[in-house]
Amino acid sequence: MTTKVVPGMLIAVPDAAAVAPEAASRIAKSLLEAIDAHGRASLALSGGSTPFPAYALLAQDARIDWSKVEFFFVDDRAVAPDHPRSNFRMTKATFFDPAKIASERVHRMRGEAGDLAAAARDYASTLGAHVRKSASGVPEFDVAIFGIGDDGHTASLFPGEPTIDVTDRFVVDVPAAGQREARLSITAPVIEQTRAAIILAAGKGKRDALERIWSTSGDVHHTPARLLREVRGSITWVIDKAAGGLG
Ligand code: 6PG
Question: How much distance in Å is there from the Cα of 188 to the middle of ligand 1?
Fold first, then answer.
C-alpha cells in the first residue's frame, strides 16, 4: 500500500460531465485574480480531449475581460493548425471563436514547421516576449491547464523520454514515437513556474497514473506528470471519482 499525498487542492466531482463546469469556474477565478493583481493574465492551454468542454463554458463567462488575457499553448501536435489532431484547431473552435478572442492575443505553436527544433526556439522567444518572467528568467504563466495521459505524461513530456530532463530550454520538440506524432511542448521549468496550475482528469483510465503521481515516492521519468507536484504556485486537481479512485 503506497502512501498518497495530493499536493494542492483536490476537487472530486461525481463524473466526467461535472469536470467541465468545475474546471471553468476554477480557471475563471484564477484569471480574474491575475487580472486584478497584474492588470493582465497569461493563460496556457493543454489539448487532448478533457479540457474542451471546460473551454466552451469559459468562453461564455461574461465576467472576464478577454482583452486582458494572452493565450498560449502547453503543447501541440506537429500538424497543421486546421488538422483534426491540432490542439490549436480544437481550442479555436471551442474557445477562441465563441469568445471572439482577437487573433493577435493567441500565440500558437507552429507545429506545421518543417524544422520543429526551430519552431521550439521560436516559441520560446514568443514566451520571452509576452509572458512575465520569474526572478530566474523563467516564463511564469498566471494560469495553466494540464491534462494527464493514461501513461502518466503531461504536456507532451512522455515516460522514458529525455525531454523531461530538459532544463536549459523552455520549449522542446518531441520526436514521433510509434503512432504518436511529433510534438512541441513546454518544459519542466516552465511547468513548475506556473502561478495557478489546474489539472483535469476523468475516467478510470487515469486512475493508475494518478496513483503514481500522488504517491509520496516515484520516478518522474516513469511518470512525468509527477513534476506537477513541484508547481510553485497553486495546484488544483479537478478529478472525477472514476479517475481519483474516491468513488
Ligand atoms: C495533448 C495534451 C496532453 C493531454 C493528455 C490528456 O496534446 O494530448 O496536451 O498532455 O493533456 O494526453 O489527454 P485527455 O484529456 O485526452 O485525457
Answer: 16
Map residue 141 onto helix, strand or coil. coil
- For atom 12 of ligand 1, which residue has the closest CA? 149
Q: Residue 76's closest CA among 164, 183, 154, 151?
A: 183
Q: Cα–Cα distance between 53 and 103 in angstroms, integer?
A: 21
Nearest Cα to Cα of residue 130 among 166, 154, 104: 104
Domains defined for the chain, CATH in brackets: 9-244 (3.40.50.1360)
Beta strands in 35-106 (DSSP E): 41-45, 69-73, 75-77
Tens digits of residue pLDDT in 37-76: 999 999 999 999 999 999 999 999 999 999 999 999 999 9
User: Is the whole-model pTM more than 0.90?
Assistant: yes
Is 75 near ligand 1, meaning CB less than 6 Å away?
A: yes
